[in-house]
Automatic annotation (TrEMBL):
A single cellular component GO annotation: peroxisome
Organism, as annotated: Salix purpurea (Purple osier willow)
Residues holding substrate: Y348
UniProt GO BP: polyamine catabolic process
UniProt pathway: Amine and polyamine degradation; spermine degradation
The keyword Nucleotide-binding is assigned to this record: no
Protein name: POLYAMINE OXIDASE 4 ISOFORM X1-RELATED
Cofactor field: FAD
Keywords of this entry: Oxidoreductase
Length: 489
């Protein structure tokens, strides 16, 4: 074997000398979709791979929970870009997974269409749908005007600041009373897309991502089958939290929490940006300043979900039930999973500072808070049978949800983030963000890209071109030709 698990106290050099084999070896750090995609590619290409994952489960920010008796995604749940060009389409087709499309292209609500929801004020009165549509149109006009603000200013600013400038210049776009609360709700939806408050999001970059066509679809059976498929036959070590990475000229040594070391020809790191920002992994030699800067130039937002299971449905047959308020912070909404899955489940979703604040509450208090919101809309709402509460922002394995462009971010941050350092390659959601804005398919592509770069680098460095049989790196699962199964009720 080219690499092996080694005990604490062994020196890097002595371990390197003891390794002799003809098969290139790679350590993949992180068992989310990015790490699994990387491991899959290299495993299928006959590399020797070991994947180190800190949690006691795979999937990372994909987490399909089954405690309600059926799948509920507590992390990612939408496929952004329901089209054949989506890199996940072949896997989804091959597994016969169903998608429930919640919006077409270019919705002002990102992954929902205007007709798919109802808003309520804080007294529980329905907001007239005509007002919701009109304010939605105004919000679109405000956003168009912010493009002019961008053109007029050389320095970047937050989206919120630009909105204020627009409202100052165009008093006719200002909203009062209930209409302003609806406008705040649109801002709240925008903040959910970036998992960050509007005063943190870069005006220069917020709309620059390349979104795939086909709109957005919920994974009806959850994302878990994809994780299971990618993980098949990979040497995976759960409960292996990496604390140190020593990047030598010919080998990489990765040390985990209990002091055990793993040596290989190369390593691919796919831990979330929040982990890199918090310096939870010690790099030897230290990361160069340009890499450290790239890590701090990007934002890492937070979104939390509180899933409520009821014994029966008492709410209307709509996809989203929203509550408007005088600030976007105080607005909220429930995703009606019954619409897509047939199960009596509502998922409350909170993003940005509010999501962090929710994490300070106990599970019970968080569920009580959410039930108060629900009872404003439906005074006779039943109590939930069960509930699940996420804490992505303080979870030591994620420290956030997904990346976004901070105000003033230099243009080449992503490029610097993904640039390899010798035998160390960088995958993970944040690395591919300029194309895929913190998405599952972005993370998947980033893992594939890192694996392909690593593969090329090692084959060149080790001179293996002649004696390795390489399976085409996208693998047989990419050849499936079943149509995507999409429904809309
Ligand atoms: C609440 C929420 C909702 C989302 N909604 C959507 C959505 O609807 N659609 C969408 O496309 N995307 C969504 N996303 C984003 C999507 O989930 C991520 O972009 C994607 O799953 C990231 O995959 P990844 O492999 O890069 O990172 P991760 O899934 O975070 O994988 C990294 C892995 O590294 C492990 N790790 C951390 N530290 C260490 C360490 N020191 N040593 C070893 N392992 C370590 C972690 O445990 C984790 O398993 C959402 C995310 C969240 C949290």
């Amino acid at each position: 074997m080219k690499y092996e698990s080694i005990g604490a106290g062994d020196t890097f050099a002595s371990q390197v000398e003891s390794q002799n084999s003809s098969i290139p070896t790679v350590i993949v750090i992180g068992g989310g979709i990015s790490g699994l995609a990387a491991a899959r590619i290299l495993h299928d290409a006959s590399f020797k791979v070991v994947l180190l994952e800190s949690r006691d489960r795979l999937g990372g920010r994909i987490h399909t929970d089954y405690s309600f008796g059926y799948p509920v995604d507590l992390g990612a749940s939408w496929l952004h870009g329901v089209c054949n060009e989506n890199p996940l389409a072949p896997l989804i087709r091959g597994l016969g997974l169903k998608l429930y499309r919640t919006s077409g292209d270019n919705s002002v609500l990102y992954d929902h269409d205007l007709e798919s929801y109802t808003l309520f004020d804080k007294e529980g009165h329905k907001v007239p749908q005509q007002m919701v549509i009109e304010v939605g149109d105004t919000f679109k006009r405000i956003l168009v005007e912010t493009e002019k603000v961008r053109d007029e200013h050389t320095d970047d600013m937050s989206v919120l600041q630009a909105i204020w400038i627009v409202l100052d210049k165009h008093p006719e776009l200002r909203q009062e009373g209930l209409a302003n609360e609806v406008l705040q709700w649109y801002i709240c939806r925008m903040e959910a897309w970036f998992a960050a408050d509007a005063d943190m999001i870069s005006l220069k970059s917020w709309d620059q991502e390349q979104v795939l066509s086909g709109g957005h679809g919920l994974m009806v059976q959850g994302y878990d089958p994809i994780i299971k498929t990618l993980a098949k036959d990979i040497d995976i070590r759960l409960n292996h939290r990496v604390t140190k990475i020593s990047n030598g000229p010919n080998k990489v040594m990765v040390t985990v929490e209990d002091g055990t070391g793993f040596v290989a020809d190369a390593a691919i790191i796919t831990v979330p940006l929040g982990i890199l920002k918090a310096n939870l992994i010690h790099f030897e030699p230290k990361l160069p300043q340009w890499k450290v800067d790239a890590i701090s130039d990007l934002g890492f937002g937070c979104e939390n979900k509180i899933a409520l299971q009821f014994d029966s449905v008492f709410w209307p047959d709509l996809e989203l039930l929203g509550i408007v308020a005088p600030t976007s912070y105080a607005c909220g909404y429930f995703l009606n999973l019954h619409k897509a899955t047939g199960h009596p489940v509502l998922v409350y979703m909170a993003a940005g500072r509010f999501a962090y604040d929710l994490e300070k509450l106990s599970d019970e208090s968080a569920a009580k808070f959410v039930m108060l919101q629900l009872k404003k809309m439906f005074p006779n709402a039943k109590e939930p049978v069960q509930y699940l509460v996420t804490r992505w922002g303080t979870d030591p394995n994620s420290l956030g949800c997904y990346s976004y462009d901070l105000v003033g971010k230099p243009e080449d941050s992503y490029e610097r983030l993904r640039t390899p350092l010798g035998n160390l390659f960088f995958g993970g959601e944040a690395v591919s963000m300029e194309d895929h804005q913190g998405s599952v398919h972005g993370a998947y592509s980033a893992g594939i890209m890192a694996a392909e770069n690593c593969q090329r680098h090692l084959l060149e460095r080790l001179g293996y071109f002649d004696n390795l049989h390489l399976v085409p790196s996208r693998g047989a699962i990419h050849d499936a030709t079943f149509p995507l199964q999409i429904s809309r009720m």
